[in-house]
Structure formats: structure tokens, C-alpha cells
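Q: I'm building a small set of examples for a reading group on sequence design. Run inverse folding on the following structure and report the sequence directly after it, with nothing in between.
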């Protein structure tokens, strides 16, 4: 008996299982082969993708496999490798924009794989039908998104051509694994890029380390030298092998406080480590800031092998390990011996210059006193002769006396210019700024130089173009500047005219002095404002002068915040412009007035046998003052020291005391006057100090000490008249201003 059973279904089932098992085995073998491939280790992304796409196409039996990655803006995906089984070629270049296929891009974000059996009608992929699927005859898609560090970076597309294909779960899992291999390939490339950059960086650092002209040393936390470059070896005079393992501090001269610096450095490091440990130390992000924050710099001497001391600038930084703990010290050492030697020479030169400047100031002060002392007699006696107090003079004698006096005035002006220039250069000049009528300043300047202009037949004009007739300046100094400019213009103008024009400009006020004189070559402009510099330097030069006027004028102008500029044409004339800026903050006050102002007027009175005590050491000055005062009716007692000063005061009970500052010497003026004030008759006496200093602070100091007034030497008759009028009601014996 034969028994027959239909096993077709069973055979078909077994055959299907066998096919399924073969596919699973093939997929596993492919994944194992990819895992063992050395292509990934090399970091060549293109080679890795070619291997992946060929293996995937061969395993899943699809016609095309492509790898698509997002662009930098994440606005589209671009095909970087597409393998075609029929042609066995790889291509790239297509792209798909997110704005054109939003459903497809959303599916990539949300699903592990996109298994579209009917890709034309699948809602996830039907957007691709016309522009992509139909073009290539693609019916089914199996797409696996590529994820990198939790971020979607692209997709692997398995494209089936022909009849629709139903993707199995195993195939979907395999596609996901293929996408993971793409992720590994991308990571391998990035890792390779980082490693290559690190290798290049290390090579560059080593090249810099070795070729740097600055000495570099790597030192461990025990202060032992780990590595050095050639420059440091040359600075210290040892080879790299000789320095290795030695203590770095053995070659550096230490100073008090170095240990404290080191402790502060290390203390700061550990404080920061506590902070970074709470948030996690990120060496690549924080290492630069860490090194910059933990650095000390100092200048120290290093000991060379031959015993020579080398001046160096040392910068020590802390280099942390990956865990943030300090691992090394990096010492940058620069040889500054030459610079130090230059600094020492410059310091010596500066000290020599300061000594020379002090010597110059002392010399000028001494010479000022020595020159002004005989000028007291020359100018004083000539004034007495001019007034014919001791007898009348004939015409020739009067001419000689006038010449003597004018020469004395010229010499005094020269001395004052030298001292003024010295004070300005030494920054000792102080301005007493106040509101001044411009018309008064110009009238004073024009009136002062008028006679000189008339003598040469020059036309002298003045024009003021201002809405407000006020400027802010030091009265004595602005008069001095205007007189210097006008005097120069008259001196160098043989014929024609000299003009003074005042105008308001946007940032201040200008005083322009123009002439039709000899003019100046533009090549000579650079010498105009140099002290003691005359453009005509010959011994028999036509125009006399010291060359101080313009130099002092410019320095005084700049002291006001302004300047003096010049334009000139040789043979046609010159134009000097004094600019004074608008004041930002001016403290108004009353100036002490010009030395040459006329004496204050008062009601007429006579000397009436009033007594003057003259305390003056210099004989000629005393004789001039005594003779003049006695001639106009005063009783004068002259003493040449302060030894018996108080006794003379008690005996004479003078109405006026003229006291030389130099005679007081070491005796404090305040103390002397305080003693004088104790006398019961003192309210009837006035004390006027006499001296050579015209510094405002010294005058104020003398007045604050208790003196009634101050007379500047050489004493002019007009000054003396002013004092007599103020304190003895003197009406004025002498009519003219000398």
C-alpha cells in the first residue's frame, strides 16, 4: 500500500525559510566585512562610502544606493556618493531642497527607517515622484536616516527599480546598520582631521619652539627642567642634555617676594579648579584662558655658565593637564641685557640733562641777580640825571644819558626774556587768566611802539573785528606777545606799513600782525621760533637782536593753549598770527598790573618830613634810592644789614620801610614782621619788600607774610612814585614816565 501526502506547501515554506536565512546570513557577513574593513581606520570618507554603498547594493539586491548629507545651512540634502549596479560607477552632485519636499524631510526626522513599498503613492515619498522617482524608474525606497551625536545629518537611500518590492523587517534593520556605518565613517574622518591638525600643530609648535629667538623651557611641578630650546641653552651657556632634570631656579637670581608670587599663582589655580570641577573642565575651551590668567612676569638676572650675569625678562605660565590639574610651567625667557644697558645709559643721560638743566637755571638766576644789581645803579642814576635833580644838562649830555638809560632798558628786556624762556621751558610759568578788553590791549601795544614806527616813517594801523570786546588771557603775557610781534614787524620793515588785525574765529580769537617788510624765505621758517636763532647770523648783521622774542612768544601762546603761525613772501612782507582759544574754565581775578603802568593818582600832598628806612645791601642801589628820596623831600636812613633793624625802627619810627628780600636771608620774613607788629607804633609804618623775583607765588608769599607791597628790581622811578603815592600820599614830583 502506497501512502502519498502533498508536501508542496511545506517545501515552499522550507524554501522561503532557506531564502530568508541566506539573506540574513548574507547581511551578517556584509556587516562583519564592513566592521573589519581598514578603510574606516584610514579616515578616507569617500573610499569608505564607496565600500558601504557597493556592499549595501550587493546585499539587498537593489540597483542604486546613495548617501545624502545636509548642507551647512541644513536647507537641503546633497548626494555625496551614488552607486549604480548596472554601470558599476559612483557619482555625486544631486540635491533635494527641504522647502520642496517638507513631508519627506519630516519623515527623516521622525522615523528610524522609511520603508516605502509603493514609493510613488506613499505619503512620505510621493513628493519625490515627478522630479526624482519617475525619472529613474524607482518604485520602492528603503531610506535610513544618518544620525551623528544625536543630530540628523543625512540619509542612506536604497532605490529599487522594477516591480514594487515589499521590504522586510530584517532589511529595514540592515539599512539602519548601513546608516550606522556611514556615521562611523564620518566620525573616523573627523577624528582623522583632528588628529592631522593636532600633528600639524605639534609640528608647528616644535618648529617655533626650536627656532624661537626667545628662550623657552618646559618645567615640571617640582621645578625640574623637562625640555629647552636652543635659545635658552645659549642664554644659559649649557647644552640641552646638561639642563635636563636640573632645577630651573638654580639658574635664576631670586628676590624677596618671589616665593609669595609663586604661592599666589598656585593658590589662584586651585581656586579656579574648584570652580571648574563643578561644571566639568573642558580643556580645549578653557585652556587658553587658563594659561593667560595664570601667568607671572618679572625681570631677573640669570647665571651664565661662564659666570656672567644676563639680564632677562621671564614670563612663567601654568599649563594644565586634561583633567585641569596643573602639569607644567612654561617659561619664556628673553635676553634684555642690551636693553638694560641702553636704559642705564639713558638714565645716566637723563640725570646729566637734569643736572645741566638745574645748573642752567641756577646760572640764569645767579646771572640775573648779578646783572640786575648794576642795572639798579645804571638805570637809577640815569633817571636822576634825566630829571636834572643834581643840575641841568646840555643837549649832548642829555643825549648821552638817554642812550645810557635806553641801553639799560634793552639789557633789562634781554635778561627778562632769557628768564621768561627758562621758566616756560621748565614748566614753572603760571598764568593769571582774566577777562581783558581787547581794545585796551591793542591801544597799549600800538601806543608803545608808535614812536619807533614814526621814526621809520611807517604807517601803523589797528582794526578790531569783534562782536564782544573781551578775551581771556594773562594780561602781562599777552601784552608781551603783541609787543614782540609788533616790534619785530617794525624792525624788519624799511618802508610801508604795519597793521594789527583782531578777528573772532570759530574756536577762539586771532591777533594778526602784518608788514610790508623784507619777508622771509620759506626754507627759513623752521628756524624762526628757535631760541637764540637769528636768520642773519653774520657778525656785521643789519638787524640786532637775540632771537628770543618769537621763541618766547610761541611758548607763551602754547601755554595759553594757542599758537603762533607765520606766512611770508621774500621781499614782500610777513604775517604773524597769534591764536588764543576759547577758554573752557577761566578763574577771573585781578592782575597785579603791568610794571610800566603809570602811578595811581591821589590828592596832592608833600613829603612833610616823613621818614623812610632803607634796608639795602648793594651800595649803588642804596645811593640811587637815597639821593632821589632825599631830593624830593623825605628823610632817609640807610642801613646795609638787618642786624640792628629793630633798634633802628624803634629809634626812627619810620613811616615807610623799604626792605631788601636778599638781606633777610635765612631769617623768616613772617617771623621778622611778626616781631615788628608787636611794637606799639607799627600801625603807622608800612613795609615794602624789594627783590628780583617776579614769580607770582613768591610775591603772594611775601604779601601773606605781612608785607604791604613788593617792588621789583631794577626799581624804576614810576614804580617808586606809585609806592609813595599809595602809602605816603605823594602827589608826584616827576611829571614824566621814565
Amino acid at each position: 500500500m502506497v501512502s502519498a501526502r502533498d508536501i508542496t506547501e511545506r517545501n515552499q515554506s522550507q524554501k522561503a525559510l532557506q531564502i530568508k536565512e541566506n539573506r540574513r546570513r548574507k547581511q551578517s557577513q556584509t556587516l562583519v566585512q564592513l566592521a573589519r574593513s581598514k578603510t574606516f581606520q584610514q579616515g578616507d570618507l569617500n573610499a569608505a562610502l564607496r565600500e558601504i554603498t557597493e556592499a549595501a547594493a550587493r546585499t539587498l539586491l537593489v540597483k542604486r544606493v546613495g548617501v545624502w548629507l545636509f548642507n551647512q545651512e541644513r536647507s537641503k540634502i546633497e548626494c555625496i556618493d551614488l552607486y549604480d549596479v548596472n554601470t558599476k560607477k559612483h557619482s555625486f552632485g544631486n540635491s533635494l531642497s527641504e522647502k520642496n519636499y517638507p513631508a519627506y524631510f519630516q519623515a527623516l526626522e521622525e522615523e528610524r527607517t522609511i520603508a516605502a513599498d509603493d514609493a510613488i503613492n506613499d505619503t512620505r515619498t510621493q513628493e519625490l515622484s515627478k522630479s526624482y522617482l519617475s525619472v529613474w524608474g524607482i518604485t520602492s525606497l528603503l531610506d535610513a536616516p544618518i544620525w551623528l551625536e544625536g543630530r540628523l545629518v543625512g540619509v542612506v537611500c536604497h532605490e529599487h527599480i522594477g516591480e514594487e518590492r515589499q521590504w522586510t523587517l530584517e532589511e529595514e534593520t540592515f539599512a539602519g546598520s548601513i546608516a550606522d556605518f556611514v556615521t562611523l565613517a564620518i566620525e573616523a574622518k573627523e577624528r582623522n582631521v583632528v588628529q592631522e591638525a593636532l600633528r600639524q600643530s605639534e609640528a608647528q609648535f616644535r618648529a617655533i619652539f626650536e627656532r624661537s629667538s626667545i628662550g623657552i623651557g618646559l618645567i615640571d611641578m617640582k621645578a625640574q627642567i623637562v625640555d629647552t630650546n636652543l635659545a635658552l641653552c645659549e642664554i644659559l651657556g649649557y647644552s640641552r642634555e646638561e639642563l635636563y632634570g636640573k632645577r630651573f631656579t638654580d639658574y635664576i637670581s631670586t628676590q624677596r617676594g618671589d616665593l609669595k608670587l609663586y604661592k599666589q599663582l598656585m593658590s589662584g589655580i586651585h581656586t579656579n579648579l574648584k570652580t571648574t570641577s563643578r561644571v566639568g573642565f573642558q580643556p580645549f575651551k578653557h585652556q587658553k584662558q587658563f594659561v593667560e590668567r595664570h601667568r607671572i612676569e618679572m625681570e631677573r638676572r640669570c647665571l651664565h655658565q661662564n659666570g656672567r650675569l644676563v639680564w632677562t625678562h621671564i614670563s612663567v605660565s601654568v599649563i594644565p593637564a586634561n583633567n585641569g590639574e596643573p602639569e607644567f610651567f612654561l617659561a619664556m625667557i628673553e635676553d634684555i641685557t642690551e636693553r638694560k644697558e641702553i636704559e642705564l645709559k639713558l638714565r645716566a643721560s637723563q640725570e646729566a640733562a637734569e643736572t645741566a638743566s638745574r645748573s642752567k637755571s641756577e646760572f640764569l638766576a645767579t646771572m640775573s641777580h648779578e646783572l640786575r644789581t648794576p642795572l639798579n645803579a645804571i638805570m637809577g642814576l640815569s633817571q636822576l640825571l634825566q630829571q636834572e635833580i643834581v643840575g641841568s644838562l646840555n643837549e649832548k649830555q642829555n643825549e648821552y644819558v638817554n642812550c645810557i638809560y635806553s641801553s639799560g632798558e634793552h639789557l633789562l628786556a634781554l635778561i627778562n626774556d632769557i628768564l621768561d624762556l627758562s621758566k616756560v621751558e621748565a614748566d614753572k610759568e603760571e598764568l593769571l587768566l582774566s577777562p581783558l578788553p581787547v581794545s585796551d590791549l591793542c591801544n597799549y601795544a600800538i601806543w608803545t611802539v608808535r614812536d619807533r614806527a614814526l621814526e621809520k616813517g611807517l604807517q601803523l594801523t589797528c582794526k578790531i573785528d569783534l562782536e564782544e570786546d573781551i578775551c581771556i588771557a594773562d594780561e602781562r603775557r599777552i601784552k608781551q606777545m603783541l609787543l614782540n610781534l609788533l616790534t619785530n614787524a617794525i624792525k624788519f620793515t624799511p618802508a610801508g606799513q604795519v597793521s594789527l588785525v583782531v578777528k573772532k574765529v570759530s574756536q577762539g580769537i586771532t591777533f594778526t600782525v602784518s608788514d610790508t617788510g623784507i619777508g622771509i624765505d620759506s626754507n627759513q621758517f623752521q628756524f624762526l621760533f628757535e631760541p637764540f636763532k637769528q636768520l642773519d647770523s653774520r657778525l656785521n648783521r643789519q638787524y640786532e637782536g637775540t632771537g628770543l622774542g618769537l621763541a618766547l612768544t610761541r611758548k607763551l601762546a602754547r601755554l595759553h593753549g594757542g599758537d603762533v603761525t607765520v606766512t611770508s613772501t621774500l621781499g614782500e612782507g610777513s604775517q604773524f598770527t597769534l591764536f588764543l582759544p576759547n577758554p573752557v574754565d577761566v578763574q577771573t581775578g585781578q592782575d597785579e598790573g603791568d610794571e610800566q603802568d603809570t602811578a595811581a593818582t591821589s590828592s596832592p600832598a608833600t613829603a612833610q618830613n616823613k621818614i623812610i628806612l632803607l634796608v639795602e645791601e648793594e651800595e649803588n642801589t642804596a645811593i640811587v634810592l637815597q639821593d632821589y628820596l632825599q631830593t624830593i623831600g623825605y628823610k632817609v636812613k640807610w642801613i646795609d644789614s638787618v642786624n640792628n633793624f629793630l633798634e633802628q625802627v624803634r629809634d626812627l619810627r619810620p613811616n615807610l620801610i623799604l626792605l631788601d628780600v636778599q638781606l633777610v636771608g635765612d631769617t623768616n620774613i613772617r617771623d621778622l614782621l611778626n616781631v615788628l607788629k608787636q611794637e606799639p607804633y607799627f600801625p603807622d609804618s608800612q613795609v615794602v619788600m624789594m627783590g628780583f623775583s617776579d614769580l607770582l607765588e613768591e610775591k603772594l608769599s611775601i604779601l601773606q607774610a605781612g608785607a604791604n607791597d613788593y617792588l621789583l628790581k631794577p626799581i624804576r622811578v614810576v614804580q617808586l612814585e606809585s609806592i609813595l603815592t599809595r602809602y605816603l600820599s605823594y602827589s608826584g614830583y616827576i611829571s614824566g614816565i621814565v
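The radius of gyration is 51 Å.
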